[in-house]
């Protein structure tokens, strides 16, 4: 992994900022000094050392950088869709200072040498931190578990088979047992492959009206129910990558009350959009799991507000024109999201549905805690992975301006409020809004 603090980043003093940090419950006007790539001082009356850069935030919000838990990056094998370099540029523009990459590459990240390759590529080409998630089963086939200990030693930070569900309960139990012994986080996609076979969108009245085969929400809930029971049985740390419906949230809530080490995430698309946005077969809204009903979307938003949903992710899944400009049922699943995750999330804040602290906790503090990463907080000695945000800046999304190699965004032409002004990684500015 590239270390953006080498050579050492110059000292920087941020002044006149609204300092917001969910980890320390901080929300105050003040300044922050960065030296040697870490936070050296926080307060209201700071002095810049000789030669330091002074950044006047002019009342903008200074917060911990975002951590995206599970983005697809095309390397190796799908560089035409995305590269580590282009993904990191998009991430920086969206305020994301750390990307955790999915394991479903070609070849998959199921061996230490692939983890090492990703770390070296990130070190050479990335402008943000990049950590690989390793496969839970060899070849993503769901039959034989990977060498969890060796992959952890190589630098993997979590384990999951990307968008594939492990159908075998026996394999899942065995993998969870070994993961528990290494205190490894298991991050799984939850959709019963037989129940969703041939489905194109959320099963229901709207799919019927469009004449499209459906994917029932029960396919997700059944797998999550199985997985949380296995997590309780084995004592494994289990994370449901994408929860998309109220019934699944009920399962997660019961598991947490029982004391199981269970957490869950939701994508910004599922928190912001619903099945009706598919409209006249708009393939950029085709994602997996599919967009659900408005009732389910509202349940997700409430789950986020209540802290039941631990993590908000971009679910970044770039697809090229050839795989998206097809009949809806034939188009590939997936939407990009690194650059729009924060701005779309701020819609919920401006609507009064979620507090800013809660949103930032789910996008920064909580992912850092789950993965054991040092970021996610404005704290003395913490890495200076920071973002400066204008919470009120209005803008209209033009896909052509996005830095991702692919442009399959469901927010094409969306009116957004709030954008990243500056992104700092290990004390060095990697993005500044012109």
TrEMBL record:
Q: Where does the record place the Amidohydrolase domain?
A: 352-431
GO molecular function (one): dihydroorotase activity
GO BP, sorted A to Z: purine nucleobase catabolic process; pyrimidine nucleotide biosynthetic process
Return the EC number: 3.5.2.3
Q: Where is the Dihydroorotase catalytic domain?
A: 61-243
Enzyme class comes to: hydrolase
Q: Which SUPFAM superfamilies match?
A: Composite domain of metallo-dependent hydrolases, Metallo-dependent hydrolases
GO cellular component terms, semicolon-separated: cytoplasm
- Recite the UniProt keywords alphabetically: Hydrolase, Pyrimidine biosynthesis, Zinc
Name of this chain's protein: Dihydroorotase
- Species source reads Hansschlegelia beijingensis
